[in-house]
Amino acid sequence: MSNERPHEGPAEDRARNGATGLAGRYERLRDQLADLYVKTTDPVARMATACALLHHKMPHYFWTGFYRLQDGALVVGPYQGPLACAVLPGPEGVCWAAARRGESLVVADVHAFAGHVACDARSQSEIVVPVRDRDGNIFAVLDVDSDRPAAFSDIDREGLEAITALIFGDAGRG
Fold it and tell me: What residue numbers bound the domain in which 62 lies?
């Protein structure tokens, strides 16, 4: 079984027992962010707002933040949680793997991920979602860690992909 896909664990239990609940929560958070984003188009302000809302509304999140692609490195941007690695020079780590592949990664056990960069030893699982600018280029990645193993599922991935699409997108829900 690949380490980059969710396996049976807390995320799947949550998905089976409350998929509508978790998916509905992400939808409500997306709508709330869309309303807040009407006030600014600045991507850093939008990232900061997303971090604050997600980190405080999602109980399985331990660290929530963005790494921005700058001069060939991933540099920490807005985040909530314990101290972060300031710079991820690459090419190791889940954040770089997601950025290189241009797709979201769900990692059930970060300790089994080859080249994992441990900014905090308490992190057990992780999801990373690329953030694209208006031209489709990767601008940043949203990195969310949990102190629980297998904390993330495809429902988290789908919800976070919809939320990150708003960073450079139209804030309107129409």
Answer: 10-164
pLDDT digits (tens, 9 = 90+) for 108-134: 999 999 888 888 889 999 999 999 999
User: ∠ CA 159-160-164 to the nearest 5 degrees?
Assistant: 125
Q: For the chain, which residues score pLDDT lower than 70?
A: 1-20, 171-174
Q: Could you tell me the pTM of the whole model?
A: 0.86
26 within 8 A of 54, measured Cβ to Cβ: no
Angle at 68 between CA 164 and CA 141, to 5 degrees: 40
Judge if the upstream peptide bond of residue 10 is cis by omega within 30 degrees of 0.
Answer: no
At 84, which CATH number? 3.30.450.40
Q: How far is CA 79 from the centre of its chain?
A: 11
d(CA 1, CA 115): 18
Sign of CA dihedral 110, 116, 118, 121: positive
